[in-house]
């Protein structure tokens, strides 16, 4: 059946490379001019999500019809024609990305509120809160699904973002199926799948989730959002709707208990820097963002300086000595060693057991963001305790330093593997022949040979 598998083109070698090569052919000059004209015209208009979506869908449809009638694609298979459409969509949306993604202030607000709300919920949610049967509970393996979903912000093309969702869902689906086989039970259905997807989404908490889903809805070619991709994407929309309206009832707990858990999570996340007021004045639906956190750190520092001066002047009674950060670390380490289930404490840190060779270029941004958050919390804790936070010197020895040229070489190798079709897609790694975040250079490499003929 046509389009039964919307990602079949992703397994065809040279998909993206083939599209660019055909656009360089002199007979494709009219296509190049049309693409360039559309992009310029689109960028000159004020943002309007509904109109923008309709405009892109219409252009893609007309261009794909023109491809079919052009000698460059004469006698080509449906898969090759589909690849041409995929290449066009990827190029157009990469060029328009900054103009259309999260361009609506209301969508940006929803993104921020949802991200901060899930940051609180993930502190206390457990699989049983979503009625996930013990047979299917496998949090350590769900980390892979979380990792796939967290990749969604790396890419610009709608299809590449959709691949991240598909990979996440396939990991979950395979784990559930294997669990049912091991337990000698009937294959799991939607009632078992959706709760796990919701749990994984909360734990992954990918930034700009709302905007990413809207972007796929609006700019993924409608004729390709079918079959398995449409099914999993619909489930992702259902998961978003659930987490947006999450409350005590939806988590099978008393509402008072839910609110108490949310307040405790606020105290944990914001309290380190004095950003938490005990729930008296802060709305749970509007947790403070990082800017207010930074501001509160500055205020807390000023207060501490004032108290120190007052103590020196004798107007404030001296306080008992507080333990140092090192003391607290040693105490916590001792507790972990004594616990039989200590490994569970590290399940939410997917890179902890990774080797350097396991990491991809895309992981660097996630690691850097996590590192910054860790430093902020650690320094805030030390400040609150009134002690100096120890510094960590990064090694720059010749033996372990990674030069920029080495990174470039690795990226170049990965890109060549993608172009040659050697990187296979699948739920186990999320890598995909057609995926990639390097911006196409059609306007620079192809348009240049036509501009002299205008």
Q: How would you classify the helix and strand content by structural class?
A: mainly alpha
Strand tally:
0
Radius of gyration: 26 Å
* Number of H- or I-type helical stretches: 17
Overall pLDDT metric: 75
Largest sheet: none
CATH superfamily assignment of the largest domain? VPS9 domain
Helix content range: 55-70%
Q: Name the shape in a single word.
A: globular
Can you tell me the CATH class of the largest domain?
Mainly Alpha
CATH fold name of the largest domain, please?
Glutathione S-transferase Yfyf (Class Pi), Chain A, domain 2
How many distinct folded domains? 2
Percent strand equals under 5%
CATH architecture of the largest domain: Up-down Bundle
Distance between the termini: 43 Å
Q: Could you spell the SSE succession in H and E letters?
A: HHHHHHHHHHHHHHHHH
* Weakly predicted, low-confidence segments: 1-14, 272-276, 279-308, 315-321, 393-438, 443-454
Structure notes:
This protein has 454 residues and is an all-alpha fold. It has 2 domains: 321 residues, VPS9 domain (Glutathione S-transferase Yfyf (Class Pi), Chain A, domain 2), CATH 1.20.1050.80; 128 residues, no CATH class. The chain is built from 17 helices and no strands. Helix 1 crosses helix 4. The two termini are 43 Å apart. The N terminus and C terminus are likely disordered.
Question: Strands, helices and their partners?
Answer:
Blueprint (H helix, E strand, L loop, with lengths): L14 H10 L4 H15 L5 H20 L9 H23 L4 H17 L17 H12 L7 H25 L7 H15 L4 H11 L7 H18 L10 H16 L19 H24 L11 H14 L22 H25 L18 H17 L21 H4 L2 H4 L3
Helix pairs in contact: 1-4, 2-4, 3-4, 6-7, 6-8, 7-8, 7-9, 7-10, 8-10
